[in-house]
Amino acid sequence: MYDKVKIKRMQVAGDILSAILKELQEAAVVGTNLLELEYLANELCSNYKVKPAFKGYEGYPAALCLGVNDVVNHGIPYDYELEDGDIIGIDMGIKYQNVYSDCAYTVMVGNVSEETKKFVETTKQAVMNAIKFAKPGNTVGDLGYAMQSTVEAQGYSVVKEMVGHGIGYELHEDPYIPGYGEKGEGEVLEKGQTIAIEAIINQGSPKILISKEDGWTSFTKDGMLSALFEHTVVVDDSPKVLTKW
């Protein structure tokens, strides 16, 4: 299971993706158009000589999945300028030397409310809490329980239709890594496994709607905020995070 060559390449991929995401985070300010972020992402992929993993995946048309405010995930970039108080989830994957890396971060744009800050920070903490359990012998349910208990303690909810996943030579591999679960249940994790741990969290109801216009963009059913964070991680006695925020 412990594929040193794969993990070494995935670390490089993680470093590159983290550098790209850092530039995208810095660019996500009041007045920036979502199409500018998409252009920048493609330009940076070209500069780093990597491929945007989402573009063309099952027909998805963009390098980025962008989620502004009530957009949950798979938001196709469109002509919208970020406004003061918005939040925007930036989700991106790349392919480098036949391996993949996947990472997501929610940016708070300008001045956001204290409640919004709490919501976003809780979502981030959910992923960090789950990573602590990415050890051999633990289960997928342990990861999910860590995320679910973190956010539900604050009154938020887990989106159940979208989950983390294995990653490596393919963008999406087994196992699924839900943001919810029971301790000790689900697939047992093995040393050297590479997984994408992702928290996709709604401020209100967990229910979502999929856009009938593009078939991709998902929204919270109640119009409240949604946030997401994701890291690519190696399962080990001391879990190794291959991406950076």
Give structural attributes:
245 residues; Creatine Amidinohydrolase; six-stranded antiparallel beta sheet; alpha+beta; four-stranded antiparallel beta sheet
Describe this entry's structure for a reader.
The protein has a single domain, classed as Creatine Amidinohydrolase (Alpha-Beta Complex). The model has no long low-confidence stretch (mean pLDDT 97). It has helices spanning 4-27, 34-48, 114-131, 140-152, and strands at 51-52, 64-68, 71-73, 87-96, 99-108, 157-158, 164-166, 173-177, 194-202, 208-210, 218-220, 226-234, 240-241. It contains four helices and 13 strands. The protein is of the alpha+beta class and 245 residues long. Strands 6, 7, 8, 9, 12 and 13 form a six-stranded antiparallel sheet that branches.
Poorly predicted runs: none
Spatial separation of the terminal alpha carbons: 27 Å
DSSP, total strands: 13
CATH topology annotation: Creatine Amidinohydrolase
> Could you give the order of the helices and strands?
HHEEEEEHHEEEEEEEE
Sheet-strand content, in percent, reads 25-35%
**Could you tell me the radius of gyration in angstroms?**
17 Å
| Total domain modules | 1
User: Briefly, what CATH class?
Assistant: Alpha Beta
CATH structural architecture? Alpha-Beta Complex
* Mean pLDDT over the residues: 97
Can you give the helix content as a percent range?
25-40%
